[in-house]
Every structure is written in C-alpha cells, then in structure tokens.
Amino acid sequence: MKKTALFPGSFDPYTNGHHDIVMRGLNIFDEVIISIGHNTSKKNRYFDIDFMVEKIKKTYKNIPAVKVIVYDELTSSLAKKHDAKYLLRGLRNTTDFEYENTISQMNRYLNESLETVFLITTPKYAAISSTIIREVHKYGGNVNKFLPYKV
Length: 151
Ligand code: ADP
Prior knowledge:
36% of the residues lie in helices and 21% in strands.
C-alpha cells in the first residue's frame, strides 16, 4: 500500500530546512504532500501564496513523489481526504518539541489513525527559520543561500 505523508506548515517562506525534511521523508514515504496552511480570508502572509506554490513546484519538478497543495481546514481532515496516514514534521529544538507535542496529540485525537513522524534537523539547517528569513528579506538582505530556489 502506498505510504503518503502530509508535510503541513505555513512555509512563509519554504526553506532549505524544509527541503531537507522532505528529501529525507522520501526515504520513508512513497509520497510527500507539502500542504500550505492558508486562511484565504486573512491576507497575513509575507510571501504571496501563489508565488510560494510556484517556487515549491519548480523545486520538485523532477520529483513526482512530491506534491504541493494549499489548504484551509483541519490538517487531520485533509489527511483523511488524501488517504495520508502520516504527518511529517521537523524538530530543531525543545521549543519546536513543546509546540509539536501539543499539535500531534490533538491531531491524533481528531483522527486516531494519524501518526506524526518527526525528523531531527540536520545541524547545518538548525538555525534556519522562516521568521528569520522574513526579517532579513524585509530589510534588504540576500536570503537565497537559505532557500532551494531564488527570490
Ligand atoms: P508552522 O507554521 O506549522 O510552524 P513552518 O512552516 O514554520 O510551520 O514549519 C513546518 C515544519 O518544518 C515544522 O515542523 C517545523 O518545525 C519544521 N522546520 C522548520 N524549519 C526547519 C529546519 N530548519 N529544520 C528542520 N525542520 C524545520
């Protein structure tokens, strides 16, 4: 049976840290669906959603096992729709752990066949966060080194 994992997040922007988790996820799963959580009524992103979808699609154009979708519903319901039994998430530090622990418990409560699989960050990406990249970009810094595509 095909093993599908959702990789949910805001990906504002999608970074080399995210890319590393997806590529390593492909060693475990047959398909990884990068699922960008986006509330269409709230325009509170820094990087435009369509721009980000296009950049991610381009990044994986030669890897059909990676898909990208935008969603605005419970992640646990989205997983059922795509027949995904796994959520893929990355862990950088204890702050990530505290946050992920809560979400993972809730997701299993909402959809009990859903397991979250955590991959520990690769050390060279441990300091990369979407937040810091937004800050640097906002003040004119070049962030391309931290992204698997160019902005
Ligand atoms: P969210 O908005 O749900 O926190 P993000 O887009 O920030 O989502 O991140 C999605 C997932 O990727 C989260 O599990 C996060 O911990 C993980 N992640 C983000 N940056 C890195 C990184 N540099 N290394 C490993 N995992 C990461």
